[in-house]
Amino acid sequence: MKGQSGTWRLRDPWIVGAIVLILAVAAYYAWQQLKPAALPPGIASGNGRVEATEVDIAAKIPGRIKDILVDEGDFITAGQVLAHMDTQTLEAQKREAEAQLQRATIAVQTAQSLVTQREAERRAYLAVLAQQEADLDAAQRRFERSQVLAPRGAVPVQTLDDDRARFNGAKAAVSTAQARIAAADAAISQARSQVVDAKAAIDVAQATIQRIQADIDDSTLRSPRDGRVQYRVAQPGEVLAAGGRVLNAVDLSDVYMTFYLPTEQAGHVALGAEARIILDAAPQYVVPAKISYVADVAQFTPKTVETADERQKLMFRLKARIAPELLRKHLRQVKTGLPGLVYVQLEPTAQWPKSLTGTLLQ
User: Fold this and answer.
1) pTM to 2 decimals?
2) Are residues 211 and 237 both part of a single domain?
């Protein structure tokens, strides 16, 4: 303002000081009113974000994506069909394997018929052998008689020679029949091995069909659990390698908040300890939880810690897990990534403040 008698200037030091003092007092009062109340003994808190177990829906074998039946943000249930991979090549391979199975089945029947034939031939050779052995026995008897009678002149020498020839011929016939039986045995063994080979070919063809059918079944991508689609990693028409991801989903039955506590507080937290979660997006609700994980290695820490003061600065990672039955009731309200505060009991007997007990989410 202009410098006139009876007026004050804004630039006068005492006026500026008074204004600053008033603003400082007002700010202190506001801070006192708005700052969070101190936590009671045995209760600690830390900042964190809601997280959930992620699940990749991926192709088992290389192939082209035929279609995707869900969009990002869709809720899915265990066993629900999410996408199909193209199976034309697999279907052709299956038809080829089925043809091989049919051929192997026919080969078994042929081999079994050959075994039957060879066994019949062997029975015929056995009958011939029996006849030849009977002829040999008769020829041997005649020859032995001729050997006795010929020196006495009772029978001509020619008869002795003829009986000797018949005897030797009968022996040769028996040997021939025995050889045929041995050959028949070998042929039967070979035919039986062909049956075994043909049956093995059936087993191979059946196993091939089962493997291809398993690949066809796996080409229908299903949700392994209840959750929500988070990302479409690929699109219909894309060709993926084995293990290529199609969708990324979150398992909404396993939701937790990760947070950090210093050494002194983390050392008092037990697995299963009671916890409370307050989300920034819904501060009016208190979400009950339990501590499901306490890291055994500190975070943000140097490799060596030389002093006690430095050890107190170490931060340990913890997880406060929300009960699955509570999640099922509020499944559609669950969103990962939301920030908030986690409060945890350091001692089982610690009393929760009233702000953490009044509006528990049921």
Assistant:
1) 0.63
2) no
Give the number of other Cβ atoms within 10 Å of residue 159's Cβ. 16
Type of residue found at 252: L
CA–CA distance, 361 with 325 (Å, rounded to integer)? 12
> Which residues are CB-neighbours of 33 under 8 A, at least 6 positions away?
none
Q: Which of 168, 189, 217 is the last residue in one of the domains?
A: 217
Q: Computed from CA positions of residues 208, 214, 215, 216, in that sequence, does the dihedral angle turn out positive or negative?
A: positive
Domains contained in the chain, number = 2
User: The CATH number of the domain where 303 resides is what?
Assistant: 2.40.30.170
Residue ending a domain, choose from 217, 243, 263: 217
238 pLDDT band, cuts 50/70/90, is: very high
DSSP-derived pairing of the beta strands 245-262 and 315-321? antiparallel
Average pLDDT over residues 234-248: 94
Give me the half-sphere count of Cα atoms (radius 13 Å) on the Cβ side of residue 126: 8
pLDDT at 35 over 50: no
What value does the CA radius of gyration of the chain take, rounded to a whole number of Å? 48
